[in-house]
TrEMBL record:
Keyword Calcium: no
Keyword Metal-binding in annotation: no
Cross-referenced InterPro entries: Nucleotide-diphossugar_trans
Species this chain originates from: Rudaeicoccus suwonensis
Gene Ontology molecular function terms on file: transferase activity
Swiss-Prot/TrEMBL keywords: Transferase
The protein's name in its UniProt record: GT2 family glycosyltransferase
Gene3D superfamilies: Glycogen Phosphorylase B, Spore Coat Polysaccharide Biosynthesis Protein SpsA, Chain A
Entry-linked Pfam families: Glyco_tranf_2_3, Glyco_trans_1_4
């Protein structure tokens, strides 16, 4: 409950007893989340780094556009900062979490979270660092002033009875207990405390996540403290993107209203949740009035945004409350195995790794297996049918209803039907990674029906990029495809061969290999020195023969129509000057990530997903073409690559496996809670 946290204002340490220089052994990182604010970073962050060149600077660019991403990349390269580039905008808390992961990997003992529109001097930062070094379970903030010198923040309180936030300096009466909290504009935290609380709760997206973090710090046995002899300056709202008619951004109005209700759904008891919900319209109006009444004469958008926040927030309050009730169900309840908060039993849809297993599945399983809160099982029919699982995580469910012979297909389909009944009876949460948007072509009516039933039973979905369409009323997580660098590290990599174009992967008709071979044939007149190497296992004998026929007249084309083991794949890709992926409707590409993990550039069709990948990994690595793939497109890509070769390795920092595993576990638990709340509702409806 909210009121269980120690009450009172943020602690203020005795300034006379404070050490004002950080111990030499501590290593500090500054994490800044950028969203269209690279000019503010040049103004606010560069001076701090010039004062203390030993600081680790990590910038997380929450995607706001290609121009801004290029600008922030240039700024980071100019100053030697570390850049993390999520493919979309996951929100402030999620951005900080990704930045802190990088900072800790770089050896930071302490992390300063700093807004782009805030600045702090080294001397003030040293005071914060010394305080945290002396008390690692204390999260500290300076007094934050506006540019005119007035105090913007010297600590805040949350009135838990009514759900109202206030400054510690306010004179208005207090309504019940208060909980101290610190603004996320400038916060310093130790590695130990960050690990203990697990970082920001990414459900908040923007606003109230600092209130939530402060509460969880105190629940974890830590303290929140304002250091009154340290100061920072905050140009409030410098990062808000608003229309000229609205005093504050509509994002501010919506999420301030929404997240107040989400917070009480997570932390409050039943009485608090009811009280906060009753007062939500009045509190929403007060949020709107923070932008002044005059703005309402010009635009209704503040009221509309706050209204959306009320509706969204109420839904999230109830969802959070249902999730907490589901986690409290005892072993006699309907979802006992599913709701264990200690160790969740997860069955993956792929079997124990074999040489042909996709490394994506192996690396994800390895990371999940290392976690103490997950009991991971790999698929076998015996395991699936005889054991109880909280979650079934499917990757390519069509494999479970297919088979090499009619008899084996029929047996698998009967077993799959039995599994659907078992999972329904045992309230198993089905989670699916959306690798493909459509069902496979050429499957039978029975297979299609079973897969549609499976999709209907699916609760949670992992999408590999923000463009994947998913149902709005189910748990969803955007978890980008991880990179393969650790997988390929043990293998020797030959040098690239000039003029060698390469394709690799499972060979299927929809991947446009006939188009690639035809386009390559158009290069013979101007570039007879080019070669094309295609390797992979065809999906059918007919496709294999078709490719052999198409390539028969061009001796520059080599075909290896068989599965590549890891050593062969590393050699095949490393020898390429550029990898060509001619899919006409590319949604997710493990092949592109494999090539980039081996530091080989790729040529792909221009679409929103591939543009985001290009912006993420840096200039020169992803070359895009519009329209049809032709010989001219191939030659132009090679010419461009040779004129402007990449200056650094592809930036794959947003695709580490540890954060991906954490995000999967979070989705598993949300999906389990959704199934449990649905079960409880059904039970209540029958009574």
């Amino acid at each position: 409950m909210v009121a269980s946290v120690s009450e009172g204002s943020p602690t203020v340490a005795d300034p006379e007893a404070r050490v004002t220089a950080p111990p030499a052994v501590t290593k500090c990182a500054v994490v800044v989340v950028n969203f269209g604010s690279h000019r503010l970073l040049r103004t606010n962050l560069v001076p701090l780094h010039e004062q203390d060149p030993e600081l680790i600077i990590v910038v997380v660019d929450n995607y706001s556009g290609a121009v801004e991403r290029r600008a922030i990349r240039d700024l980071c390269e100019e100053h030697g900062w570390h850049l993390v580039c999520p493919p979309g905008n996951p929100g402030f808390g999620a951005g900080v979490n990704r930045g802190v992961v990088r900072a800790l990997e770089l050896g930071a003992d302490q992390v300063l979270m700093l807004n782009p529109d805030a600045r702090i001097d080294q001397a003030d930062l040293d005071i914060l660092r010394a305080a945290v070094a002396a008390a690692p379970l204390t999260m500290v903030a300076p007094v934050i002033r506006r540019p005119d010198g007035s105090v913007w923040s010297d600590g805040h309180e949350l009135e838990t009875a009514v759900g109202r936030i206030r400054s510690v300096r306010t004179k208005r009466p207090v309504h019940g207990p208060v909980v101290p909290w610190l603004s996320g504009a400038c916060l310093l935290i130790s590695r130990e405390l960050w690990s203990r609380v697990g970082g920001f709760d990414e459900r908040f997206f923007l606003y109230w996540e600092d209130v939530d973090l402060s509460v969880r710090v105190q629940e974890a046995g830590g303290e929140v403290t304002v250091m009154h002899d340290a100061e920072a300056v905050h140009d409030e709202g410098g990062t808000q993107h608003r229309s000229s008619d609205v005093a504050k951004s509509t994002t501010y109005y919506r999420y301030m209203v929404r997240n107040r209700l989400l917070f009480v759904g997570i932390h409050g008891d039943r009485r608090q949740a009811a009280a906060w919900l009753r007062s939500a319209p009045q509190e929403a109006w007060q949020v709107v009035l923070q932008g002044g009444r005059r703005q309402l004469l010009a635009s209704p958008m503040p009221v509309i945004a706050a209204g959306r926040g009320l509706i969204d927030g109420a839904g999230r309050l109830f969802a959070a409350r249902r999730g907490r009730r589901a986690e409290s169900v005892t072993d006699s309840g309907p979802a006992d195995a599913a709701t264990s908060t200690d160790r969740i039993v997860v069955l993956q849809s792929v079997p124990r790794p074999r040489p042909t297993t996709n490394p994506y599945n192996v690396m994800l399983a390895d990371e999940l297996r290392q976690r103490p809160d997950v009991d991971l099982r790999m698929f076998s029919w015996r395991e699936a049918l005889t054991q109880r699982h909280a979650v079934f995580h499917a990757h390519w469910p069509e494999i479970l209803v297919a088979g090499p012979t009619p008899m084996r297909r029929a047996v698998r389909q009967m077993l799959f039907t039995a599994l659907l009944l078992k999972w329904t009876a045992q309230h198993t949460a089905i989670v699916r990674t959306v690798h493909n948007l459509e069902l496979p072509e050429g499957i039978s009516r029975r297979e299609r029906l079973l897969l549609q039933l499976f999709e209907r039973r699916t609760v949670g979905r992992v999408r590999l990029n923000p463009q994947t369409p998913v149902p709005a009323d189910t748990p969803v997580a955007t978890i980008v495809h991880g990179h393969y660098r650790p997988w390929y590290a043990p293998f020797e990599r030959p040098a690239s061969e000039p003029g060698r174009l390469t394709y690799f992967g499972l060979l299927r008709r929809y991947k446009g290999l006939d188009t690639l071979i035809a386009a390559f044939g158009q290069t013979v007149a101007d570039h007879p020195e080019l070669t094309l190497a295609i390797a992979g296992k065809p999906s059918s004998v007919e496709l294999a023969q078709s490719l052999l026929d198409l390539a028969a007249d061009d001796p520059r084309i080599s075909l290896q129509l068989d599965f590549l083991d890891t050593r062969e794949l590393v050699e095949h890709v490393s020898r390429a000057e550029i990898v060509v992926l001619p899919h006409t409707h590319m949604h997710n590409s493990g092949s592109a990530l494999a090539a980039l993990s081996l530091d080989r550039p790729v040529l792909m069709q221009d679409n929103e997903v591939n543009r985001q990948l290009s912006n993420e990994v840096g200039p020169g690595w992803v070359h895009l073409y519009a329209g049809a793939l032709t010989g001219e497109v191939l030659c132009d890509a090679l010419d461009r690559l040779r004129r402007e070769p990449p200056a650094a390795r592809p930036d794959l920092s947003a695709r580490e496996w540890a954060p991906a595993a954490q995000a999967h576990v979070d989705l598993y638990r949300r999906s389990v809670a959704a199934v449990s709340s649905r079960t409880l509702s059904e039970v209540g409806g029958r009574q």
